[in-house]
Specification:
By secondary structure, this protein is of the alpha/beta class. It has 20 helices and nine strands. Strands 1, 2, 3, 4, 5, 6, 7, 8 and 9 form a nine-stranded mixed β-sheet that branches. Helix 8 links the parallel strand 3 and strand 4. The protein is elongated, with a radius of gyration of 30 Å.
């Protein structure tokens, strides 16, 4: 009897230890992501911008960011004509862009304005705080004498606070887009009327807000919001007619049909850009590009230098501008990307000379992705051997024998896992960053699933093992804690492949966000299984055992009285 209780206590302590380690690793992973600091910033700070410029083709530049607008929704609604159709037809429409991952708002804005992916410019999540400490098209415009203005976008005001001449705040809520566009037009007229060249950013948040509140982009509310914002944007663009402004109408990310955004799904990554104004050839240009290409393209139209960390290419198909300007900026954008990639290669010790800088960058990040995989594999292997040795020792001393008890333990593990994932599915547990609105929401769904699985495991073992009322508490605890502990191990085993291939902290280069997200989910599952599922199962089977023992005694007493 003592050895059984010693085994139960040892397994519980081991499971709790693994659970506490799991939750700390998971939270450490999360912290390393939201607090990401590019290790290359100091090195990249020395990259010089390519000398390029020229007479501006447009007098002003205006960005209108339609947060969270799906490309296919825009195309479907604009295909019916009306205000959206007119808006799209006014400019060079590029519908086949890709946002960088993760597909969040602030990283998207940073890439649009710097020409650099998130891991290079240092903005990897919406938790970024402070001034963006790298070069940007905003700084290039400011250096060229533009007045920099923003409306309705707190993230732009934060990241470029050192460059902005005036920013008008518009609280998010009903009518955000209408107020932002009206205020943007007022500020534009104020500064352009005073003879200044204007760099204006207008943030329109309505579409994104409605998408989150309605649970995705399939709702009628989402479509209606897109149509209304399209009408307002058209009025804004028409109000700037004759001002000589280049208008860049674009989105930072798409939206999952049932969910949110942040993940790598094509429906979330796909973005559009519409260029309207001087030098633009209206039409549809179905060429592939990324957010990194926007800044060098705007620089080409405005005669500005390309941001120093830009890794983008210039888009040329939708513009009617001199060929020598196009060639000059095409060469300059490639040279700028080459300088950035060369600096990254030197800093990381991986120097490659491939056909183009973008292929070199991909090769560098691929070679760095698996750094330390050998030592991580050795650690995982050692832990696996320890677990297997413990199970073998338990079998040798007959703690998991006879065969019926082994079968019951394995059945309990299967029941726990099945119950967990069914509960997770019913709770609409996230399977991608695009399913998560907040960390608290994710933790709540995992917690609920672990509690539900613990209850189902206890009820299953209680009915199977205690219905005859002949098994004591000590024996029912063995399969309960063993099955729960094995469920903790299963969670860790599911997380192990990602840990081996990449590691547990977000670094340069960033992770494959599909695998990285599930690594976090599996760790949290393992931790809540040990910290909540197991204790709950133990409490319930203990109650089963006591009730069963009480009923058994009553039945014997009744039998004796009857005799």
């Amino acid at each position: 009897m003592r050895i059984i209780y010693a085994y139960v206590i040892a397994v519980i302590l081991l499971a709790l230890t693994f659970s506490l380690v799991s939750i700390n690793v998971a939270l450490g992973t999360y912290s390393s992501w939201v607090g990401y600091k590019s290790p290359l910033i100091d090195v990249l700070g020395g990259v010089e911008p390519v000398r390029v410029g020229g007479e501006p083709i447009a007098g002003h530049v205006v960005f209108i960011l339609l947060d969270g607008l799906r490309v296919d929704t825009l195309m479907d609604l604009s295909g019916a004509g009306g205000e959206l159709g007119k808006l799209v037809s006014m400019g060079a429409f590029y519908p086949s862009g890709l946002a960088n991952t993760p597909t969040y708002s602030i990283p998207g804005r940073a890439s649009i304005l710097t020409g650099a992916p998130p891991e290079v410019n240092g903005v990897l999540s919406n938790d970024f705080k402070g001034v963006l400490g790298v070069d940007s098209i905003v700084r290039a415009a400011r250096d060229a004498g533009f007045k920099v203005i923003c409306v309705g976008d707190k993230s732009i005001e934060m990241m470029f606070s050192d460059l902005i001449d005036e920013c008008s705040r518009v609280d998010e809520g009903g009518g955000h887009g209408a107020i932002s566009l009206a205020e943007g037009l007022r500020l534009f007229k104020k500064y352009s009327g005073a003879g200044h060249r204007v760099f204006l950013w207008v943030g329109v948040a309505d579409i994104d807000m409605v998408g989150h509140l309605s649970g995705g982009s399939m709702s009628s509310e989402y479509n209606a919001t897109v149509a209304n914002i399209g009408r307002l944007a058209l009025n804004f663009v028409e109000s700037l007619s004759g001002e000589g402004a280049l208008i860049v109408l674009l989105t930072d990310h798409g939206f999952k049909r049932v969910g949110h955004h942040g993940g790598p799904e094509l429906e979330v990554r796909r973005v559009f850009t519409i260029f309207i104004g001087p030098g633009v050839k209206p039409g549809v240009y179905d060429v592939s590009y990324t957010h990194n290409d926007i800044a060098p393209t705007v620089a080409m139209i405005m005669g500005l230098r390309i941001p120093a960390l830009s890794m983008g290419k210039v888009l040329v198909e939708g513009f009617d501008i001199p060929g020598d300007r196009v060639r000059e900026y095409s060469v300059a954008s490639r040279e700028q990307a080459s300088r950035v990639v060369a600096a990254i290669g030197e800093a990381t010790g991986v120097r490659l000379s491939l056909d183009d800088p973008w292929s070199s960058y991909s090769a560098i990040t691929s070679s760095l992705y698996g750094e330390g995989a050998g030592s991580r594999l050795a650690l995982v292997s050692a832990l696996a051997i320890l677990v297997l040795a413990g199970l073998y020792a338990s079998l040798r001393v007959h703690l998991l024998g006879p065969k019926r008890l082994i079968a019951l333990t394995l059945a309990g593990l299967i029941v726990y896992e099945a119950a967990y994932w069914v509960a997770y599915s019913l709770a609409r547990g996230p399977t991608s960053l695009s399913d998560v609105l907040s960390l608290g929401e994710l933790l709540d769904k995992v917690r609920i699933s672990a509690v539900a699985a613990g209850v189902v495991l206890a009820v299953f073992l209680g009915f199977v093992e205690l219905t005859p009322f002949r098994v004591g508490l000590s024996r029912i605890l063995v399969p309960t804690v063993t099955a729960s502990a094995l469920a903790v191990i299963v969670g860790l085993a599911l997380a192990a492949p990602f840990y081996v291939s990449y590691g547990h902290t977000v670094r340069f280069p960033p992770p494959d966000w599909s695998g990285g997200f599930m690594f976090f989910v599996y760790l949290v599952k393992a931790s809540f299984t040990g910290l909540m599922g197991m204790p709950l199962a133990v409490i319930i089977v203990a109650a089963f055992s006591l009730v069963g023992l009480y009923i058994y005694k009553l039945s014997r007493k009744a039998g004796e009285l009857g005799a």
